[in-house]
Write a structure and sequence with these properties.
heterodimer; A: mainly alpha; 10 helices; 0% strand; globular; B: Rossmann fold; four-stranded antiparallel β-sheet; 37% helix
């Protein structure tokens, strides 16, 4: 693995982002709108709900964290789709870049894209709604890390589909997170779900992450077991996603679909 | 010295045999042209050499080493095709910088300056690649394809859809470049004049097999035709009825 090759792909995406003001605005616009919308919803609930009245911003904090997950996953997919749309994939595949270098470069660049979008939105929430994610304290770093890993995991799975099935898989890229959101227990506790669905929800890291977020904000106590489970589950899913990606790549080479992925 | 050697290379997609156990080799400083009608297996052959398609059987030997994982040689190989583009939103200079970094060129600045000079890229260096004409884009693509001083260069219809002047510029450049640099070129083209001018040896492919081969002169003489185009037409239409 060569750092210089990884940096070259990151540089390609950095050039792309910095060259286009609409692209930067697009990165910032959606998270900001999302947070303003959920900020008002959160304010309304705080005023009218006994569950939320002591924890102003519980919904907004969840919304911000969910958006972080959403942006990291979508960013990963977008970076790969950019290569498909610009018909540049073959140039990358015939270069000395290894698959693991492509994965690392996209993972790092996705973080940059996510932060460009999310940091301004998070900062806006402080004066506008009096809510700061920093209230979550040190565990915030672990929660964000967990969300980021899960976002990348989903991104990798979608990218594996794009490699194998081509741009026709693009719609799945956009919809991937919406499939999981209902059982991610982002805005409500796991107990709300039907009994049969709860084990499925608990098998995902999201339920543990958002359960812990609520726990910190409501009771002001940190349950590291939730964070630990989330990280463990994340590792399992990430390894599965990496294996799927490699399998998909190998299969695409056998079936010859790699040369048509940009068509 | 043989740079590239193909032995019994075969590719089967499902029940369709796209490439049928072909054999050929390219020596240092040699240009071999791969000719044949659409769908004859040229692109599949090139894609297998580049590692984009896994062969069903057979071997690809580069510099006396059989490729099992082509990563160790991709740094010394490169490819250009008008059907594969460089990122359109990036400026020409940015694309060259990215690929110089990707191929780990030691003195990237000097290399880019050399390519700018040789391929007359100065007037378009700060333009976005997507805003260039097809001829200009072709020159940039060619610059990318030689940025790593490849030992093996694969060209898929390098002058397709270009006007005669730009086409001639590219061919002249390739001739000059090959003289100065020791490399093997595999050229897939439908332009018979281009093949006659650039290639030292011609492989005629049809339905996945190499049906004839030789120098342009040898093929013309053997088939009793006036030029390579007539040879191509004869072989392509053989057994059609």
């Amino acid at each position: 693995m060569k750092i210089r090759r990884i940096l070259s792909l990151m540089l390609r995406h950095f050039y792309l982002i910095k060259a286009s003001l609409p692209r930067i605005v697009d990165l910032i616009y959606w998270p900001t709108v999302q947070i303003i919308l959920w900020g008002f919803v959160s304010k309304f609930f705080t005023m009218h709900s006994t569950y939320f009245n002591n924890t102003a911003g519980i919904i907004l904090s969840a919304a911000i964290l969910y958006d972080f997950l959403f942006r990291s996953s979508i960013s990963y997919n977008m970076l790969f789709l950019e290569e498909i749309w610009s018909r540049n994939l073959i140039n990358l595949f015939v270069s000395p870049l290894k698959v693991n270098e492509i994965v690392i470069a996209l993972t790092c660049t996705a973080l940059l894209r996510t932060l460009i979008g999310l940091v301004p939105a998070v900062l806006i929430a402080i004066p506008l709604f009096g809510i700061s994610l920093l209230e979550l304290g040190y565990p915030l770093i672990l929660l964000l890390l967990s969300l980021y890993i899960f976002g990348i995991t989903l991104g990798l799975l979608v990218t594996a589909g794009l490699v194998r099935f081509g741009p026709s898989f693009e719609n799945i890229a956009w919809a991937s997170l919406f499939f999981i959101a209902p059982i991610g227990c982002i805005y409500y506790p796991v107990e709300i779900l039907p009994n049969w669905l709860q084990p499925i929800a608990l098998a995902l890291p999201l339920a543990h992450i958002f359960e812990e977020t609520r726990s910190i904000l409501i009771t002001n106590t940190v349950h590291y077991s939730n964070i630990y489970y989330a990280l463990m589950l994340n590792m399992i899913y990430l390894i599965l996603a990496i294996c799927t990606f490699y399998y998909s790549f190998k299969n695409a080479k056998i079936k010859g679909s790699l040369i048509n992925v940009g068509e | 010295m043989k740079q590239l050697e193909i032995n019994n290379l075969q590719k089967i997609f499902g029940t369709f045999e796209a490439v049928k156990k072909i054999n050929f080799s390219i020596s240092e400083n040699q240009t071999v042209a791969l000719l044949g009608p659409n769908g004859c297996g040229k692109t599949t052959t090139i894609a297998m050499i580049l590692g984009l398609i896994t062969p069903t059987s057979g071997s690809i030997t580069i510099n006396n080493k059989i490729l099992t994982n082509n990563h160790h040689y991709l740094a010394k190989m490169n490819f250009a095709s008008p059907y594969v583009e460089l990122p359109k939103k990036l400026k020409v200079i940015e694309n060259l910088k990215v690929y110089a970094m990707m191929y780990e060129i030691s003195n990237a600045k000097a290399k880019i300056e050399q390519l700018v000079e040789e391929l007359n890229l100065a007037p378009i260096l700060y333009k976005k690649t997507g805003e260039l004409s097809s001829g200009q884009r072709n020159r940039v693509s060619l610059a990318k394809s030689i940025i790593n001083d490849p030992k093996i260069l694969l060209l898929d219809e390098p002058t397709a859809s270009l006007d005669p002047d730009t086409g001639d510029f590219i061919r002249t450049f390739l001739e000059t470049y090959k003289k100065k640099n020791s490399m093997a070129i595999l050229l897939a083209s439908h332009n018979m004049d281009e093949v006659t001018r650039l290639s030292d040896y011609v492989l005629m492919m049809k339905e996945g097999s190499i049906i004839d081969e030789g120098t342009t002169g040898e093929l013309i003489k053997k088939h009793g035709r006036h030029d390579l185009e007539e040879v191509f037409l004869k072989l392509a239409r053989q057994n059609e009825n």
